[in-house]
Amino acid sequence: MTGSRGVPSRRRLAHEEVPEWRFPLYSVPRAMIGHATGRRLAGDWRGACAAAGVEVRLDPDRARADHGGEFADALLDDLHHLVPDLVRWHFPRSHFSPDRGALRSLSVVTLSRPGAGPRLAVLGPDWPQEEPPYLVLDLIGEERTVPVPGASFGGHHPWEDRRHLWDSRRVHETRGRWGGSAGRAPLLEPDGTPRAAEDLPAADPGPGADPATRTEWLHVLGRKPEGRAAAIAAGGPWRVPRDLAAVLAGMSPDHLHPLVRAALAPARPVDGPVGPPPWEPPPPVRVDCGGREHGVALRGGRMSGPHTEQEHLRERSLRALGGGEGGCFAVSEAWRLRRGLPPELEAHRAELFERVRHGDTETVLRYLAAGGDPHVRGEEGETLMHRLLLVDHAVVLPPLLAAGADVDAVAPGGATPLYLAVLYRGDIALVRALLAAGARHERIGDRRNGFGPLADFVRERLAAAWHPERSTFRDAGPWTDLLRDLEEPSGGAP
């Protein structure tokens, strides 16, 4: 069963209980997949990585000099067939926030060994809540595959023999690797519809059965307490892959990554867009407003009922004088201040920020175009301005400013958007853009790290060497230039 927005709801299938599943529905936006695919098909592997939020640290020319031409040629061959958005789709997820789809920090996924030398690998974030949630593509030595002692996260995940998870030449093997046959995946019809209970094998189909039927038998047998030993002896039990479990639980195959959809539903016609569904404005919510029922929805830059600007001004004046708000006006204020919302609107507000957390630029644009309030705050009290570092800020900042967003909005801990742009990974282009938009830089920071001028924080970051391989500022030059501008006697904004 699927809701109106395509989000699956858990249920017990008629033919078998589906194992507990977690699916990061918003962690790889449809637009990200589309942009990355376009660059990959154009032969631009670096552009595909950038579109998928994968930072490239390796240098093929340096690899040629260090490890020889044969190694470099094999490396480039793999890079040109890398599907970075598919890597992000399958990348290990955190056990601490499974429903949010957070990337598992300190994870090392090795993709291939191009020759005698280092391995091609994708590295997870350094910290459990690192933002933005970048992946890193690099060449690593054997020492990087050793787990962190005592850590409950991270780990080495070898994908050298699982190329269907990342190599465009091998993705067609996915269905077979998941126990399927030429025409269908196990537990599904060829079009991706879950199989009826009566169509599953009730007895051992024998070694000559097609692979999907054989897998189904191992699954059915393994789910029975008395049959587990027999399933193990027969080559099982079989573990349902996450994507297949999501479809069995009600998700449309059309909302999977296109390459995964092709594996699970080979006969399903393509009659529309494929990929995780885009953000849609919440439908109007009926509230009692002064004895009359009104529909509250996004309109005119706020969550509002059918009221004029003059009525909103009157309510704000009454509130300033100590009066209370009710009806549509209370919901409008709750949407902005993240408390007291009707449950259905709270779910939409949480979804908005969850999508942004995963770099969904298109969601912010759609939200603003639908009349969304630019001052809306997430569960941590942050505004969309604070989350600019997670999306394409060059595209999002202008409409946010045009809608009236506050470039100096303060989060509960005291952080401003400018401070976060320096604190997390250091995006010099975003810092410059915020300064150009008028962001104050004389006193930034938060309660944990203290407050001070922007120049002090830049100076500290330039001097720090927390992670030699993943330093906060990969290129110190632009930051040195910014520091010089900040220290000019004029004292003006750079």
Structural write-up:
This protein has 494 residues and is α+β, with helices and mostly antiparallel strands. 36% of the residues lie in helices and 9% in strands. The protein has 19 helices and ten strands. A hairpin with a 6-residue loop joins strand 2 and strand 3. The radius of gyration is 26 Å and the shape is globular. InterPro entries: Ankyrin_rpt, Ankyrin_rpt-contain_sf. Residues 174-213 are annotated as: Disordered. Residues 202-212 have a biased composition (Low complexity).
Which percent bin holds the helix content? 25-40%
Indicate the overall shape. Answer: globular
- What's the helix count? 19
Low-confidence stretches: 1-21, 465-471
CA radius of gyration is 26 Å
* Lateral strand order in the biggest sheet: 1-4-3-2-5
InterPro entries: Ankyrin_rpt, Ankyrin_rpt-contain_sf
Biased composition (Low complexity): 202-212
Region (Disordered): 174-213
Keywords:
5-stranded mixed sheet; 9% strand; 494 residues; alpha+beta; disordered N terminus; 19 helices
Layout: helices, strands, pairs:
Blueprint: H1 30-41, H2 45-51, E1 54-56, H3 60-67, H4 69-80, H5 84-90, E2 107-112, E3 119-123, E4 135-140, E5 155-158, H6 174-177, H7 211-222, H8 228-233, H9 242-248, H10 258-264, E6 285-289, E7 292-299, E8 302-304, H11 309-320, H12 327-337, H13 343-357, H14 361-369, H15 393-402, H16 417-423, H17 428-436, E9 444-446, E10 450-452, H18 454-463, H19 476-486
Helix pairs in contact: 1-2, 3-4, 14-15, 16-17, 18-19
